[in-house]
Amino acid sequence: MSDEFILETRNLRKEFNGFVVINDVSLKVARHTIHALIGPNGAGKTTCFNLITRFVRQSGGSIWFDGQDLSHTGPGALPHLGIARSFQISSIFPHLSVLENVRLSLQGRLGKSFNFWGSARRLSHLDDEAMSHLRSVGLAEFAKRTAHELPYGRKRALEIAATLALDPRLLLLDEPMAGLGREDVERMAALVRQVGEGRTVLMVEHNLSVVAELSDRITVLQRGDILAEGSYEEISSNPLVVEAYLGGGHG
Ligand SMILES: Nc1ncnc2c1ncn2[C@@H]1O[C@H](COP(=O)(O)OP(=O)(O)OP(=O)(O)O)[C@@H](O)[C@H]1O
Ligand SMILES: [Mg+2]
Q: Which atom of ligand 1 is nearest to the CA of 17?
């Protein structure tokens, strides 16, 4: 595996009860890029994420992260490897403060080395770090608020802050723009770009103008296979892709 690529799937395959969902996907994600995975509903995008994050086991093929074979790893190993997936809203603790949510995530990263009964000084150090993550997603002023009070778009930003606390090298975002209004989309797009600096982001996203704006490279998935790959210009002028989106392939 070359140093250029941080993540590689080789002939990845997934069947559910004999039904092929991922047929033969060899995906290469270059280090320090924002890479988008797009395609019609049911193409297998989320399943790809579930395979990469080891929530489901592949039926065939392999997954490589930074030269390491993940094919036999479970999901528990991922934070230590430096892979994080954006948290779903349901994983925010609604009755804790915004700051406490990020602090919990930090404690999770520090794992066993974190002493729960540690000194007040260490706790305040955690607060400092949590605040810096909140600042970077524009939530500093909301730190003391209870998480459930946040408007939807801010909750999504809190998920990102909690994910950043894990200090991942590879961040997987499944439809970060879903359900956001126009203003929140712009804010989230700026955030994804910022988060992508010095990291690698693999993003599933249906909002094609966001994909065009953010992505260094795009892979189009259709019915479990890679249909096309390239820059937004290349993808959007590819007749096969146009057909998949506008023709009968959309469902
Ligand atoms: N656990 C499962 N058991 C059976 N079938 C599944 C399972 N997970 C996904 N599938 C099927 O795999 C196919 C691909 O689903 P997947 O969620 O990966 O698509 P997607 O590209 O993320 O679609 P969307 O854009 O709608 O989110 C679908 O036909 C889905 O019904
Ligand atoms: Mg999906």
A: 4
